[in-house]
Write a structure and sequence with these properties.
The chain has 19 helices and 20 strands. By secondary structure, the chain is of the alpha/beta class. It has a four-stranded mixed beta sheet with strand order 2-3-1-11. It has a four-stranded mixed beta sheet with strand order 8-7-20-19, with helices on one face. A four-stranded parallel beta sheet has the order 9-10-12-14. Strand 7 and strand 8 form a beta hairpin.
Amino acid sequence: MRANLEVTGSTQFSILSEDQAESIFLGMLEVLQRTGVGIHHEEARSLLKEAGAMVDGTRVFIPPAMVQEALSRAPRETVIYHRDGSGVIRLRRNEVYFGPGPTCPNFVDPETEERRPYVKSDAASVARVCDALPNIGFVESLGSISDVTHSLADVYEFAELITNTAKPIVAWSFSRDTCRDIHQIGIAVAGGEELFRRRPNYIFYCEPLSPLKSDHDAMDKLLYCAENRIPIVYTPCCIGGGTAPATPAGLLANAMAESLHGLVVAQLKGKGTPFIMGGVVSIMDMQHSTLSYGAPELSLFSAGLTDMAKYVGLPIWSTAGCTDAKGLEPQAAVEAALSIHSAMLSGANLVHDVGYTESGMTGSLFQLVMSDEIIGMSRQISRGIEVNEETLAVDVIDRVSPGGNFLSDDHTMKHFKREHWQPTLIDRWNYETWVTRGTKTMADRVKERTREILSTHKAPQVSEDVKKKIAATLSAAEEREKKKTKKQ
């Protein structure tokens, strides 16, 4: 019998059996055909109707064959590039990348530690910290900018992010207009439209509404991305017992229907559009009426949705590294660790919301930096154990012999750096040394590391020409918004 490591390339678990996954998939197909979805966009409804869906007002009933056809058209692997060409992220089976989330209204000031509104300079800070952290694979903002023209906060955010990190960005926008602005910036950074299509430097994120509805803006942005071959995440936020069934199987069927009707539209608009299935899936805390980001159900449901993405052959957008706690304290570490390790072992592809605190209301660089260490630990475990003649080391054991030591053996020198994970923040000093080093807690070390990155790390810079193009895009967007305001 082959080991799990040999089959998957890493240690993985599955929540669902093949039979369970099939049942959820068939349930999702029934939901789309029998219940349908509310689609508040005329072009999207027209595309669906022409392809064979039944349309009744804004309600669209999608037959199973259309879903199957869309699945056959979507790429099984999506590649996103670092803007400086230094690396890629490959969204394929069991390749796992972590990053922050977007749009928190509040932010923990990394100097004063006070909770305050998120401002433009915070986006640059988040980008630089993400750029420095070895276990963060992609970048979002951890907030929504409050000190610029409100309707352009999304564009300013993207401009700050892409100029302060080389890592791929996950972008969002309020409207089709700002979706286009972001696209123009991405093209400028890539060096032209053709180069962007070949080497996209960002993924676009947008959301249907739970339950079973896509408003005009969500569909408008999806159609723009499909037309321009921009990789897209279409991800609902399903709250068990609130906007989705309380039962896990029902929630997963609901989440898939909400994400995959977006897939159908995207493939009708642009065959082969890179599409990442998604879902922020957790529960409504019935005592506090909040979406719980630290609930064990978030990890359970997310792993189940990852199984479903593997079942249908799509990359998956998932969630981890977040907490309902209000600060850097044990609850935050426990909730982040459990969700990160679950996401890692489930094989989710893009795992966002690392750094969320207060149930998604406040972004924290401290939470992000602490989670980076947790991700490193989890990734080491997920590597599994390789067994071959070299690693079994029978000859080495014989050579050292009873009573000897392995410390100075060449085999140890050859392998320990790869086989032994080395912490950056975790404390392993003996007590006396810990005291002489200042009796610092994990929270102390996290804060020090965060501030050190902010004071010393510099990401690769974009050219002056690119900066001018970004500034021109922002200026044109400001003029457009002024004209809109005058018309109103």
